[in-house]
């Protein structure tokens, strides 16, 4: 067995392209997921029984089925209902919807973790519900939801590799293709693994730094 | 005769099947300190939370300085909810202090006090900060303005919470067991702030287990038991012997908490 | 026709469950060993364990599977692809379970361990008879979550050609041109299995609650 990573190094620009697609998909997936997830969590908390039950079921289905199945359904099933999507938009939509379901659960737990008294205090001082959400609940939640949100973001980065299966030209797809062309598949996959590993470790570190910076704003669970 | 700051008429509060307040009638005079005492679960905190409109009563009326709080009764006896803006306006006359302080952990002491001035009263930041600082000075904490709640002792947190409520210049202050979550050596500083406030003539409704405070500061003491207001009156009258057996039983439990002077 | 398809999916689901169960069990054993290495306090054991956990938590499962699938033959191990798949899933879940257990071990009250020591238990006895059982009770909810994650992740072994629920759904979808009902059915089957795991987990938690700290 010869291990020769040089043949991959030659293809570095291509690899960089794949990395860029992965990072863009990842960041857009997080951004869309956070916004959508927050709306879902807010609607479930303040929208009454029916809204909560309907959204809750959708979230449960998305969290209880493999991401790959959801992507297949969207990519192969979409055209049968007039939804013709290219791999990249399909992957992006899939990633956003899946992450929205996961983020919504984190925000829901966040809403629940803000002590009721903090919200009551805002009400006693004359704040409206919107003011209370914006000025009290969101900032307090931020500290609580940060660790699980960072965790989830890391999971999403890794989950995005699945999009290679529907030929999204992201990191995994690009590097496997390079590996096959260059007859150096093992080297390619090895480098691929290392790139992901570094990205994940980096994200983790940044997340922990942010947690540390915010930790003094934490309240005790009295 | 003194004017009533708060009038409570036939107030009933139920949680599901449980009746926590049964037909409460009480007048709280202006500029006086009124203490609500009673065993745990007697409904005194619920009554106070009804006054702050944190709980909505099931039936009955609460009037604050002559204005109905939350609900009004039509001439035909139907109970209707007032519009939110009006409810906020009446609520603005009261300030609330909680047992658990409920300071917002992501804001400094100054931020906690100035927040509502800025976003509810729409005051410019500089004015709000100045006013908030004055309130912090009043509770002796101007040198802690930049501290976050987690960096303050329980007694300091509660004083910030009092400053936060006072900043909006309420006519009535509501205290819900303001010293119960504090270590015994820290209750004094909070009780002192409350005494000073009483001396200034603030109308105060105080739910407390500090019988000593109630006996010395209150103008009116109301004793609740099992959701009923058993009696209400000036301390000398309420604590005079012979006492109601339930009150005697209750005081026994609190003998070592400053009530020994009444034994 | 539709009944036939559903039966095929259910049969494939049995493979999915089998692969997941075996991987979780193997992963659990490895995770306990990793925990022992971590708690040994000796860098020669704990450092490799930490790298292992960091790597398998830091690399997408799909990439791990591709790596193992290519690596095993390259080092002369010509094993069936199902073995490669189970090895991949096991190593991955081992890393996650070890991380969960780390939290559990950290929450075992120090006094209980000291009590074991003063009663004369050896470090090994203390580990297996005191720390592991208590940590397990503390991490049971996380373990149940991990089982659900692995069940869902096992869909990725379809990529290396294993016929399980996802691969079967994919094949049926392309041969029948009925992707929507087929992928929905597959999703439903996953959902039901996940719910059953969650139910078993809740039952186990209740049973263990009596003996929890």
UniProtKB/TrEMBL annotation, chain A:
The keyword Transport appears for this protein: yes
Transmembrane domains' residue ranges: 20-41, 53-76, 183-200
Top-level taxonomic group: Bacteria
Keywords, alphabetical: Amino-acid transport, Cell membrane, Membrane, Transmembrane, Transmembrane helix, Transport
GO biological process annotation, one example: amino acid transport
Protein's cellular compartments: Cell inner membrane; Cell membrane
Domain (ABC transmembrane type-1) ranges: 15-204
A Pfam family: BPD_transp_1
Membrane topology: Multi-pass membrane protein
Predominant place of localization: membrane
Gene Ontology cellular-component annotations: ATP-binding cassette (ABC) transporter complex
Ribonucleoprotein is among the record's keywords: no
Segment forming the signal sequence: none
Gene Ontology molecular function terms on file: transmembrane transporter activity
Family assignment from sequence similarity: Belongs to the binding-protein-dependent transport system permease family. HisMQ subfamily.
NCBIfam families (alphabetical): HEQRo_perm_3TM
Name this polypeptide is given: Amino acid ABC transporter permease
Automatic annotation (TrEMBL), chain B:
GO molecular function, one term: ABC-type amino acid transporter activity
UniProt xrefs under SMART domains: AAA (SM00382)
CDD domains tied to this protein: ABC_HisP_GlnQ
Entries under PROSITE patterns matching the protein: ABC_TRANSPORTER_1 (PS00211), ABC_TRANSPORTER_2 (PS50893)
The keyword Transport is annotated on this UniProt entry: yes
Domain ABC transporter: 6-251
Source domain of life: Bacteria
Keyword annotations of the record: ATP-binding, Nucleotide-binding, Transport
Cited InterPro entries: AAA+_ATPase, ABC_ATPase_HisP-typ, ABC_transporter-like_ATP-bd, ABC_transporter-like_CS, MetN_ABC_transporter-like, P-loop_NTPase
Family: Belongs to the ABC transporter superfamily.
Protein name: Amino acid ABC transporter ATP-binding protein
Automatic annotation (TrEMBL), chain C:
Lineage: superkingdom: Bacteria
Compartments (UniProt record): Cell inner membrane; Cell membrane
InterPro entries: AA_ABC_transptr_permease_3TM (IPR010065), ArtM/GltK/GlnP/TcyL/YhdX-like (IPR043429), MetI-like (IPR000515), MetI-like_sf (IPR035906)
Transmembrane segments: 12-39, 134-157, 177-200
Keywords annotated in UniProt: Amino-acid transport, Cell membrane, Membrane, Transmembrane, Transmembrane helix, Transport
One MF term in the entry's GO annotations: L-cystine transmembrane transporter activity
Annotated membrane topology: Multi-pass membrane protein
GO cellular component: ATP-binding cassette (ABC) transporter complex
Pfam families reported for this sequence: BPD_transp_1 (PF00528)
Primary location recorded for the protein, binned into one broad class: membrane
ABC transmembrane type-1 domain location: 13-201
NCBIfam families documented for this protein: HEQRo_perm_3TM
Family statement: Belongs to the binding-protein-dependent transport system permease family. HisMQ subfamily.
UniProt-recorded name of the protein: Amino acid ABC transporter permease
Organism name: Rhizobium deserti
Taxon lineage: Bacteria, Pseudomonadati, Pseudomonadota, Alphaproteobacteria, Hyphomicrobiales
């Amino acid at each position: 067995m010869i291990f020769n990573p040089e043949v991959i190094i030659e293809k570095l620009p291509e690899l960089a392209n794949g990395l860029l697609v992965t990072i863009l998909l990842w960041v857009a997936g997080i951004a869309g997921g956070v916004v959508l997830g927050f709306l879902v969590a807010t609607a479930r908390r303040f929208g009454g029984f029916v809204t909560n039950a309907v959204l809750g079921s959708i979230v449960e289905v998305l969290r209880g089925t493999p991401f790959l199945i959801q992507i297949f359904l969207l990519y192969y099933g979409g055209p049968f209902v007039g939804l013709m999507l290219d791999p990249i938009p399909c992957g992006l939509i899939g990633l956003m919807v899946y992450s929205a379901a996961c983020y919504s659960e984190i925000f829901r737990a966040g809403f629940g973790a803000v002590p009721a008294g903090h919200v009551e205090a805002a009400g006693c001082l004359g704040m409206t519900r919107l003011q209370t959400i914006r000025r009290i609940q969101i900032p307090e939640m931020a500290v609580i939801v940060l660790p699980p949100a960072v965790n989830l973001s890391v999971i999403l980065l890794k989950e995005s590799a699945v999009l290679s299966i529907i030929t999204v030209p992201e990191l995994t797809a690009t590097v496997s293709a390079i590996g096959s062309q260059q007859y150096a598949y093992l080297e390619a996959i090895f480098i691929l693994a290392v790139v992901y590993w570094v990205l994940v470790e980096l994200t983790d570190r940044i997340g922990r730094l942010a947690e540390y910076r915010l930790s003094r704003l934490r309240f005790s669970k009295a | 005769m003194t004017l009533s700051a708060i009038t409570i008429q036939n107030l009933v509060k139920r949680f599901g099947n449980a009746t926590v307040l049964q037909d409460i009638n009480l007048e709280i005079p202006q500029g006086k300190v009124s203490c609500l005492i009673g065993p745990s679960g007697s409904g005194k905190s619920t009554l106070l939370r009804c006054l702050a409109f944190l709980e909505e009563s099931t039936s009955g009326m609460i009037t604050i300085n002559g204005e109905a709080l939350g609900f009004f009764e039509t001439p035909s006896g139907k109970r209707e909810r007032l519009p939110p803006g009006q409810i906020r306006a009446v609520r603005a006359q009261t300030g609330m202090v909680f047992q658990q302080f409920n300071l917002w952990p992501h804001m400094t002491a100054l931020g906690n006090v100035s927040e509502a001035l800025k976003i509810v009263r729409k005051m410019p930041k500089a004015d709000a900060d100045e006013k908030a600082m004055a309130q912090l000075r009043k509770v002796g904490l101007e040198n802690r303005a930049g501290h976050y709640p987690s960096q303050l002792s329980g007694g300091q947190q509660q004083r910030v919470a009092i400053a936060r409520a006072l900043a909006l210049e309420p006519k009535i202050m509501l205290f819900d067991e303001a010293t119960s979550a504090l270590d015994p050596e820290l209750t004094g500083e909070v009780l002192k702030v409350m005494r000073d406030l009483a001396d200034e003539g603030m109308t105060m409704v105080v739910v407390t287990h500090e019988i000593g405070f109630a006996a010395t500061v209150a103008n009116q003491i109301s004793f609740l038991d099992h959701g009923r207001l058993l009696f209400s009156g000036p301390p000398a009258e309420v604590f005079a012997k012979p006492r109601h057996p339930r009150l005697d039983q209750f005081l026994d439990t609190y003998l070592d908490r400053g009530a020994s002077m009444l034994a | 026709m539709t009944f036939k398809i559903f039966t095929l999916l259910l049969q494939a689901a049995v493979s999915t469950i089998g692969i997941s169960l075996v991987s979780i069990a193997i992963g659990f054993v490895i995770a306990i060993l990793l925990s022992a290495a971590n708690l040994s306090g000796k860098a020669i054991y704990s450092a490799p364990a930490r790298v292992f956990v960091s790597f398998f938590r830091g690399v997408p499962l799909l990439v791990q599977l591709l790596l193992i699938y290519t690596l095993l033959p390259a080092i002369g191990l010509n094993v069936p692809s199902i073995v490669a798949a189970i090895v991949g899933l096991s190593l991955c879940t081992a890393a996650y379970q070890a991380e969960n257990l780390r939290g559990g071990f950290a929450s075992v009250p120090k006094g209980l361990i000291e009590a074991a020591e003063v009663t004369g238990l050896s470090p090994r006895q203390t580990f297996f008879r005191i720390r592991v059982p208590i940590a397990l009770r503390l991490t049971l909810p996380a373990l149940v979550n991990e089982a659900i994650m692995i069940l869902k992740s096992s869909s990725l072994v379809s990529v290396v050609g294993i016929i399980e629920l996802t691969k079967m759904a994919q094949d049926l979808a392309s041969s029948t041109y009925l992707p929507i009902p087929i992928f929905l059915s597959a999703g439903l089957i996953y959902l039901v299995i996940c719910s059953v795991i969650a139910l078993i987990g809740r039952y186990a938690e209740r049973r263990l609650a009596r003996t929890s700290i």
